[in-house]
Specification:
- This is Class III extradiol dioxygenase subunit B-like domain-containing protein.
- The chain is of the alpha/beta class.
- The chain is built from 8 helices and 9 strands.
- The strands form 2 sheets. Strands 3-6-2-7-1-9-8 form a 7-stranded mixed beta sheet, sandwiched between helices. Strands 4-5 form a two-stranded antiparallel ribbon.
- Strand 4 and strand 5 form a beta hairpin.
- It is globular and about 45 Å long.
Length: 240
């Protein structure tokens, strides 16, 4: 059963070494993300499952200890999912997709030791109903499951945004923010797949996995952060 969840954005720029000279611009966002991870730890889960968007080669399960890297972003920095103690030796032959590498960095920064960790890379084309089915399956894995959901909102909030300016983007992100703040699984489940794809929202599928996991959990939500630096919608929310 889902007993807690946190939602954080997944840009590699969240990692100061990647952001370099612009690192200070996201200090507030990093602090909010670390607070959200703290809420997960305080819930005392039996298992933490990290869910994030992934390209084809990064989809599927990633066991505790799976390595990740930011070398593709010009930084000599490696991480492991739940990489502490003997657990780190259980690395798989796979590597983490960027979204889960950012999550691994967050967990290392927070010195996560509250529960075993596993990852799941989700393809953005995954249909809404299948996303919710996956969420239900995750929530059923243990009596006390926590989710760390990585994903961005639209990438079309400004002229300099990765997807250029789209007037629909602000409304889409506002709907996501309201749903996260209210822990409204129905509203997350109702996000438009086609619109999300057109707005380059790299979080629609993970958010709908959360919608499935949260069914019947009756959690309360708190939206801690909402902004669109660089024209991309970022949210930090906690459900408990």
């Amino acid at each position: 059963m889902l007993i807690a969840a946190a939602v954080c954005p997944c840009p590699p720029l969240l990692v100061p070494e990647v952001a370099a000279g612009a690192a200070g611009e996201l200090d507030e966002l990093r602090a909010a993300c670390l607070d959200a991870v703290g809420v997960l730890a305080a819930a005392r889960p039996e298992r933490l499952i990290v869910v994030g968007p992934a390209e084809r080669d990064g989809r599927g399960p990633h066991p505790q200890g799976t390595p990740g890297s930011f070398r593709g972003f010009g930084v000599d920095l490696d991480v492991r999912l739940g990489g502490w103690g003997e657990a780190a030796a259980e690395a798989s032959e796979r590597t983490l997709p960027p979204s889960l590498a950012v999550a691994a960095w967050l967990l290392e920064r927070a010195r996560w030791q509250a529960a075993p960790v596993e990852g799941l890379g989700v393809g953005e084309p995954l249909a809404s109903e299948r996303c919710r089915e996956v969420g239900r399956e995750l929530a059923a894995q243990a009596e006390r499951v926590a989710l760390l959901v990585m994903g961005d909102g639209s990438a079309c909030r400004s002229l300099k945004a990765p997807g250029y300016l789209d007037e629909r983007a602000a409304g889409f992100d506002a709907d996501v923010a309201r749903a996260l703040g209210a822990a409204d699984v129905g509203a997350l489940a109702a996000l438009d797949e086609e619109l999300a794809a057109e707005l380059k929202a790299a979080g629609r599928a993970p958010l709908q996995v959360l919608a499935g996991a949260g069914e019947g959990a009756a959690l309360k939500g708190e939206l801690r952060y909402e902004a669109a630096p660089y024209g991309v919608g970022y949210f930090v929310a906690m459900w408990s």
